Structures are given as structure tokens and as C-alpha cells.
Amino acid sequence: MNEILEAVKEITAAAVKKADKACRVTRLKLSKAALDRLLNAQYIELGKTVYDMCKSGVEDSQEIVSMTVQIDGTRRRLKALEKRIAHISELVTCPGCGTVLKIKNTYCPHCGKMLAEEEEVITENENEMIMSQE
Ligand SMILES: [Zn+2]
What is the DSSP letter of 62? Predict the structure, then answer.
């Protein structure tokens, strides 16, 4: 009886962990969508600025450079987020030897340990940090 209870507990814990991970991926994807929108807005702003400069005949290369730097920053943040999402959704770290493996492996090919879901990969703070970097 106790064994069955233990097994149920373990399954429930695994399900909660999975849901947790799905939540985290969803949150990251929302952040990514927001960054995508920001990037598009920055591209449009840059285009509009260049257009206005052409029209008025007044060129301010400093402004263009600073906008480009902003865009690069957004692109870097997007890259970091994409990496996080890929990492969380596709990879697990072997608890035995630390090898990073695709999630489809059940056992580690290096040390033979059974693979569990990856624990905390990204914290809320980390996510906010990525989102608020300027
Ligand atoms: Zn291993």
C-alpha cells in the first residue's frame, strides 16, 4: 500500500515539475514575443528617422549609430532568450556526470544514470534581467 502511495506521489511530483517547466517556457515565449515587437518597432523607428533625415537633408549619423546600438542590444536579448527556451525545452543535464543531453534520452549514455527533468534553469530574476537590459 505504501509503495503505491509513494509511486503516486512520485508521478504527481513529476507532473508538477513538467507543468512548471511548461509554464516557464510559456513565460519565456511571451517575453520573446514582446522583444520581437520591440525589435520591429525599433527597426521602424530607425527607418522613419533615416527617411526624415533624407527628406530634410539634415543627416545625423550619431543618432543612427545610437539607434543601431539599441537594436543590437535587443537582438542580443532575443538571442539569449531563444537559447534559454531551447535549453529548457530540449535539454536535460545528467544528474550523474553533468553531460547535457537531448530530452529524448531516458538514460545517460555516459554513466547510465536515469535522466530526470532539469531543475531550475532560469529564475524569475534572470528573466527580468534579460528583459530590462538596456
Ligand atoms: Zn551521465
Answer: H
Instruction: Measure the CA–CA gap between 57 and 69, rounded to whole angstroms.
Output: 23
Q: Which amino acid is at 117?
A: E
Instruction: Confirm whether 45 is domain-assigned.
Output: yes
Reported confidence tier of residue 99, pLDDT bands at 50, 70, 90 = confident
Residue-wise DSSP of 36-52: HHHHHHHHHHHHHHHHH
User: Ligand 1: distance of its center to the CA of 110 in Å?
Assistant: 5
The pLDDT of residue 134:
47
Domain that holds residue 65: 2-89
What spacing in Å lies between the alpha carbon of 17 and ligand 1's midpoint? 21
Q: How far is the CA of 85 from the centre of ligand 1 (A)?
A: 23
Structure pTM? Answer: 0.59
14 and 55 in one domain? yes
| Three-state SS at 98 | coil
